[in-house]
């Protein structure tokens, strides 16, 4: 308790002062002392809680706020009394140094609490961050600097601390040299190493035997050495943020210097070298940077108004211990100098003004960071450069806001020229990686980025020479140069979230509607090659289009109604400016020219990326382009590109191109209800497609669906569409030829060889369709681009086609109905048998076999639903006759005996039958419950043979049906007693798992 008593005695001068001035009553002083004593006793416990420190600090903060409020109220009362010539007003006055003493007392108490907290919880970063935040909020720069040094010595791998410390030096102390030193030290302490890429690189350079010996493990590479990575850890994101903020800090240094030199009448960097600076030039620029740092703090850093407060703070600062923080990057000793008008500018200054330091920083980043994460870095740097407020330039901020800081005439200002040099440096770094390090996906990213980057900021590209710029916003340069508001905002270094970088991770995610469920990962991921295209086009879309939901509910003339399913959007101010000035076609023409310069006959990925970009630009909901002549130009460019891609006729790899065109045209036809001639022409194109490419199921699926529309309209001279006309119960005798045509069509794309070839989905087709879609959902036929979903859809259409024959009609006789039922069942038997025969093929392994199983399961499920599903509410008596004709019990017996459905299929059917049994009348409920039990029993038996890992879940589902649906606890208990010994014989853990599931069922019941 001596330590508690000592701490309380240290607060006696403050309490005595408050008592003398009668700002607090005796009872309040006793309450404060009692609370402090309680907190001090908690802090000295062996197992102290950090919440006690935080509550103690909150108490002191509230107490200080209360004292400040009462003291200011006292001062106001004394002032009013003095104005009234009250002779007693002097008694109300507070001592001259009261506020200084109070501030010093409050700071001393809080620093003492923080010091004990960070000593007790030295490995808790949050404790240090609270200490730093408190010191910075009270403008205690010396305290903050010392605490930063101690925190970084204990937590060198916590990247946000380095950024926060650099921001404190850059904006709190106006010390660019110290900020640069901190960031450089942080980069050295936090280096990223891509172990998977290194392992893949070693596997390419060394024989497997030697690599095995060196690695003491497998020599198999997990992915390509030059592959891009899209999912990063939090630590990797922090390190990338550190690089981005270091680059921003150097931009801030250059811009502050440019503006200072402009005031002094010196060169502001309009003339500079365009080539990449050499190492000697960088060394000269770096040495000069230490000597041109500002001599005084910026205008936004204000001194304390009260000198007494500053003096008291200096006394308190002595309580904060120093930390040894030797830094080899610190500025050399010497007197800082400021250039004056009339003196010669040294070469190092010219290198700084030309952007030498950021350019060499790009080279260092390329060497230090893994190549797999650098696309994120360079994309973020392009956005930082576009939004940075260089004076005498045009600024394009996030979400398309445009500002003009131009102070000179001509196509480019000095700030535009500087930005252009830096952007070219970023693109050179990307091109170097694409040529020497990155794999095919990275090379494609390099080509696409070089083509589309004029859309991010055209004044940083040669396209500016052909632009009119007549719709430029009014310049705000004079206001900015007086107040430096934009520069102050851009000078802040963000430690936890950088909009230019952290928003990119969400843009790189594959939309759920495009992700293939059974796609591989790593080198087997079908999205690995075209994901950079999606990522970069999403970045461009943010610059051009603003979603209506993001525009604060603002109405837009271009925004579509949500009732029709279209995406609501509106152009950004940047896009509106380009459109109004007529400069948008110039930028688009530059983009297409850049693609065509790189395009070669053998570079199919780049051609497909060009196609995706054209489709993206032609979609107003993603690119915001609605100018008719520009849309025609994009359409002509797309037609020319498609003709080039399909010059030799479609083959299996690019068959989706023709199918995708059919999908788009068919979706537009159904939406607009086109005339018969358009439908006939579309069916003719589909017929030609299946003649030239009879292996792709998507071609047959589109042929069948378009043919069904043709048959429904009964168009003349369209005999080829006759098989797709739905049969009726009255003419099943004439449907044999149609069924034979169907089976021939299905057999053409359902051989084991076909299934074995479609293990990878054509993600390029999904991407192109997604970028061109103007609605929130993709067209219904979008899944037909991939072979497996198209094959499943085609067989399911066949089952539904046969089901149409058993639908009742008023003119159908009983004899015709029975005949139609037999015909439909024989058709379904063929479907089940032929899809089940695929599973017997030895050619199908892995994903191909899973696709074959999924196809068979889909057919079995659709057939069972067609036979057993209850009639809808309100159906007539003829519909009820269908149950006696189709006989669900016999159908189930045949399926159980002759099909090869999976456990998941039987379980899904059991769940369906369980749901149906609850809505059926009493007559059919018992039979439905019996079928559900048979399905559950089949699922259990098959799971015990083939799916041991899921047998517990199957048993649990069976018991849940008995408990919740049938409410038959006796049967459930008997089933449990039958299941436990069988599971225990296989694995005791399975039996325990089933017992836990049973207890959960009983509790929920």
Automatic annotation (TrEMBL):
GO terms for biological process: maturation of SSU-rRNA from tricistronic rRNA transcript (SSU-rRNA, 5.8S rRNA, LSU-rRNA). Signal peptide: none annotated. Keywords: Nucleus, Repeat, rRNA processing. The keyword Magnesium does not apply. Residues 301-318 have a biased composition (Acidic residues). It is found in: Nucleus, Nucleolus. InterPro entries: HAT, TPR-like_helical_dom_sf, Utp6, UTP6_N. SMART domains: HAT (SM00386). GO terms for molecular function: snoRNA binding. Belongs to the UTP6 family. This is U3 snoRNP protein. It comes from Malassezia brasiliensis. The gene is UTP6.
